[in-house]
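Exercise 3.2. Students should predict the tertiary structure of the chain below and write it as structure tokens, then compare their answer with the key that follows.

Predict this chain's 3D structure.
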Amino acid sequence: MKKNGFTLAELLGVVVILGLLLLLVFPSVVKELKEGESNIEGAVEQIIKNGASNYIENNKSIYPSNTNATYCITLNTLVNAGEISKSLLIDKKGKALDLGKKVEVQIQNGQKTYKMNDQCQNS
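Answer key:
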């Protein structure tokens, strides 16, 4: 009589092979996920810096860039001015950033540097 199906040895062989493949693939998948998180964080930070740069450029009367100065701009100000979208402001855990966070813009000899802070030096 002919039997349909697989033997226990065949099933165990397939499970072992799948387990070995999973062991080989899993570390690289985890690494890719972590790299993706850091890429998102860097992209959000770059969007914020670009928004702050545009905001300063559009408001030269308030933020002259020909002087050595430090300016502090909240994320809420950038959102209200339309320079950045509130929906893009996420941290690496996928949680919305606090709109009270500040972008500290330091201008030295015409060069601008941007830092994200909870508080600025001049506030």
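Discussion points: Strands lie at 69-74, 102-108, 111-117. The helical segments are 8-58, 75-80.
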